[in-house]
Design brief:
This protein has 235 residues and is mainly α. The chain has a domain at 32-157: Orthogonal Bundle (Helix Hairpins), CATH 1.10.287.1490. Helices cover 80% and strands 4% of the residues. It binds zinc ion. Zinc ion binds next to loops.
């Protein structure tokens, strides 16, 4: 029994359909973990940002406490000065006390003003941390659910690919070696071993096909590879 070129092309096309699907599934298997790690990276980026703000907040707190201590010291000093000033005898001493009390009070007020400003910035930092932590948790949850989904889907994709690979083995057995070599060489190099003839042009690479080759494809007299890309041409 001899295989006609027409039959051969039909078989190669069936093989091509299987191969394209195998390729698609393989790409999906390769892409899926990348999508999960993208989400994990995003979560890590948000955690890094939150951690920076936390450090800034710790610094702000330390600065505020320093000022609060100073205020306490100044307040104690004020108490002391006030009680001392009640015992002064001369007017000169009284003026000196009054001036020092007023300076000390002004310094205490200034520091308390700074404490309030720092508290405000602390509140903003606190809110920002909460916001970043919420976003981080959302990304983590997304990554986790994607991972779970991916594992399930990948199981199904792997099973389909395995079935197709078995199917491919059977299809390949029936094919003449020479035709298979022509097809496979191009499939490995270009991802697809077949190209539709579009008028006088190869549908794979767009090259012009010679008159003779166009006739050969139309009459199915022999297998015709595109001279530019080597894909086997069909109508
Ligand atoms: Zn071509």
């Amino acid at each position: 029994m001899t295989t006609t070129t027409d039959e051969l092309i039909q078989r190669l096309l069936a093989l091509n359909t299987v191969d394209l699907r195998i390729r698609e599934l393989t790409e999906r298997l390769e892409r899926a973990p990348a999508a999960v790690s993208e989400r994990e990276e995003a979560a890590k980026g948000l955690e890094d940002k939150a951690s920076q703000v936390r450090q800034k907040l710790a610094l702000l707190r330390a600065q505020r406490r320093m000022r609060e201590n100073e205020v306490r010291g100044l307040d104690a000093k004020l108490e002391r000065l006030k009680s001392q000033s009640s015992n002064v005898r001369s007017n000169k001493d009284f003026v000196a006390f009054r001036s020092e009390i007023s300076n000390t009070q002004a310094e205490s007020d200034r520091l308390q003003g700074e404490v309030l400003k720092i508290l405000e910035v602390e509140e903003q930092a606190d809110a920002r941390i909460k916001q970043l932590e919420e976003q981080r948790d959302a990304e983590r949850a997304r990554a986790a659910s994607m991972k779970e989904q991916t594992l399930e889907q990948m199981g199904a994709v792997r099973a389909e690919r395995e079935a197709l690979q078995n199917d491919r083995k059977k299809k390949v057995e029936d094919l003449p070696k020479e035709a298979l070599q022509l097809y496979d060489r191009c499939r490995v190099a270009r991802g697809s071993g077949m190209a539709h003839l579009e008028g006088e042009y190869c549908g794979g690479c767009g090259a012009l096909v010679t008159r003779n080759d166009v006739y050969a494809v139309q009459n199915r007299s022999r297998l015709v590879p595109c001279k530019a890309c080597n894909r086997l041409l069909y109508l």
